[in-house]
Specification:
Helix content: under 10%
Structural class: mainly beta
Distance between the termini: 38 Å
Strand content: over 45%
Largest sheet: 9 strands, antiparallel
Number of helices: 1
């Protein structure tokens, strides 16, 4: 049985050019050989999710095209939308940086497992903005639609000697803001959230770290806007900008 994600319910409840709809038809992936036609009685709602008899499908993502016919033998303009077949339980993931899919990293994931990928992101990236793309595999062997987000990288900081390879992930961010860095020796860091005018809006817990480490903070309650994450070791300080859309 196939599962339609986007095709919520195209209801045949209205009229086409002031005429009654009598027939509808559909086909899959632009293949006319899959054409199927069905009739519909006046004033009847057609729940297509329940009634569509889809052929066997090997592709993860597919298109379905529908048309409706009225009692004047006129067909509507074809309407096409995407859907996916059921993939089963998620059992793996794959991600890559800056569209370099040939260098993708893969991993397994079990039921009810949470994977925190910020610790796995590569070091040595040039300073600036980068993209992170991830997709998930299902038990049937199919892949989800890839999801892409951005993050910020800073190689080193003159203001904070001994702190390097900073990654602010993701950026823009909706819910959880993550920071990963490398500390040469033990460092006690003080962190604050600042608004766009540089005013402190939140003090974050002190972070004592050695070597590579990371932290996550829930910022889901912040209003949309531009903010700064201020990092200080008591002697110097720097700020990294992020955006909440």
């Amino acid at each position: 049985m196939k599962h339609l994600l986007i095709l919520a319910a195209l209801m045949a409840t209205g009229q086409l050019y002031a005429q009654t709809i009598t027939i509808y038809r559909w086909w899959i992936n632009d293949d006319i050989a899959t054409l199927t036609t069905a009739s519909i009685a006046p004033a009847t709602e057609a729940n297509l999710i329940a009634t569509l008899d889809l052929p066997p499908l090997t592709k993860d993502h597919n298109t379905i095209t529908l048309q409706f016919k009225d009692n004047n033998d006129e067909w509507s303009v074809p309407r096409t939308t995407w859907f996916t077949k059921r993939t089963g339980a998620v059992n793996g993931y794959e991600y890559w940086i800056n569209d370099a899919i040939t260098n993708a990293t893969t991993g397994a994931i079990g039921p009810n497992t949470i994977v925190d990928l910020i610790d796995d992101l590569p070091t040595g990236l040039p300073g600036g903005t980068h993209t992170f793309t991830i997709r998930f595999s299902g038990a049937s062997g199919t892949w989800s639609v890839p999801l892409t987000t951005s993050f910020s990288s800073t190689v080193g900081l003159d203001e904070l000697p001994g702190i390097s390879d900073l990654l602010l992930f993701p950026n823009p961010v909706n819910d959880a803001l993550g920071l990963r860095l490398n500390a040469a020796g033990s460092k006690q860091l003080y962190l604050q959230l600042l608004d766009a005018q540089g005013r402190v809006i939140r003090d974050l817990p002190t972070w004592i770290t050695t070597g590579s480490g990371y932290r996550n903070w829930d910022i889901s309650d912040l209003s949309a806007g531009s903010y700064l994450l201020r990092i200080s070791d008591g002697n110097g300080a720097t700020s990294m900008r992020f955006v909440k859309p």
